[in-house]
Write a structure and sequence with these properties.
By secondary structure, the chain is mainly beta. The chain has one helix at residues 5-21; strands at 2-3, 26-29, 32-35, 39-47, 53-64, 70-74, 79-83, 87-90, 94-104, 109-118, 132-140, 151-159, 164-171, 177-185, 190-193, 196-198, 202-209, 222-227, 231-235, 237-238, 248-249.
């Protein structure tokens, strides 16, 4: 099954609207856990609603494409996962804790534990039962991390015609990394954009819509990416006329202070 980050956000937004009406809220904490290999972890499943809910857990492996699409599949056989529970019931206003042990023959490795919440006392407008899936994404990482020479910026272009910046980032190394913060740098201001994961020997393409029309002095000149241990800055080039690229679209935050991650920044994973 292939899902885009934006499709997931729309589904989650719709679910949240339903829950707002029903005065309920379900939460998974944390959304992301980056650990060693092997490692132990804990997930909190919170039911702040007024109805007891049933929860079933399912672990899946996944691959992220260049444009941010996520392809899920059954858990890879070289990932060993032991959960303290795979199904349970959460009473209203209560939290349920699930502990797990995970290891993999090789690292880095990653997978997601999806929690399917059911038992809501309301239905959709079409009369269907509500089922909400919330993820907990796990990364099993080696001690060695991503280094600056591993990252190549293949494209950093401004297209005034579409009022977007297109970014292509390639990870040529063997380790997983994450862009913690992305900024478009103007002469007198900065525009925040989402962070995103960079997988080994993979490329990520991202389109960043500008919050204002690129004209006069109001034109970004540089893009800056803060990784976990280093920062990369790249001057923006002008896109050639007629050039097009298919990419994930990063929705700009409501204010420059906000930084909405892609993990499920994610948050994509």
């Amino acid at each position: 099954m292939t899902r885009t980050f934006h499709t997931a956000i729309r589904l989650l937004a719709g679910a949240l609207c339903i829950f707002a009406i029903g005065a309920a809220a379900q939460t998974v904490r944390p959304l992301i856990n980056e650990m060693g290999n092997p490692s132990k972890g804990r997930v909190e499943y919170v039911n702040d609603g007024l109805t007891p809910l049933n929860v079933v857990l399912e672990a899946r492996s996944f691959t992220v494409t260049e444009t941010g699409d996520i392809d899920y599949r059954p858990l890879d056989p070289d990932i060993h996962l032991k959960l303290s529970a795979t199904s349970f019931r959460i009473q209203p206003q209560q939290t349920y804790y699930v502990f797990y042990e995970a290891n993999s023959i090789k690292s880095p490795q990653w997978f997601v534990i999806y929690a399917a919440f059911t038992g809501f006392n309301f239905r959709t407008a079409q009369g269907m039962n509500v089922r909400l899936e919330l993820p907990h994404t796990v990364y099993l990482l080696p001690k060695a991390g991503l280094e600056k020479p591993d990252i190549i910026i293949d494209r950093a272009e401004l297209d005034p015609a579409t009022n977007k910046v297109t970014l292509e980032v390639e990870n040529q190394g063997n380790n997983f990394g994450r862009v913690m913060e992305t900024q478009l740098v103007y002469s007198k201001k900065k525009q925040e954009a989402p962070g995103f994961p960079v997988f080994p020997h993979s490329k990520r393409i991202l389109e960043i819509p500008l919050t204002e029309k690129a004209e006069g002095e109001n034109v970004p000149v540089e893009i800056s990416m803060q990784f976990q241990k280093f920062r990369i800055e790249q001057k923006l080039q002008r896109a050639r006329p007629g050039e097009a690229v298919t990419a994930a679209v990063a929705t700009p935050p409501a204010s420059s202070a906000a930084n909405a991650p892609a993990h499920p920044n994610d948050r994509i994973p």
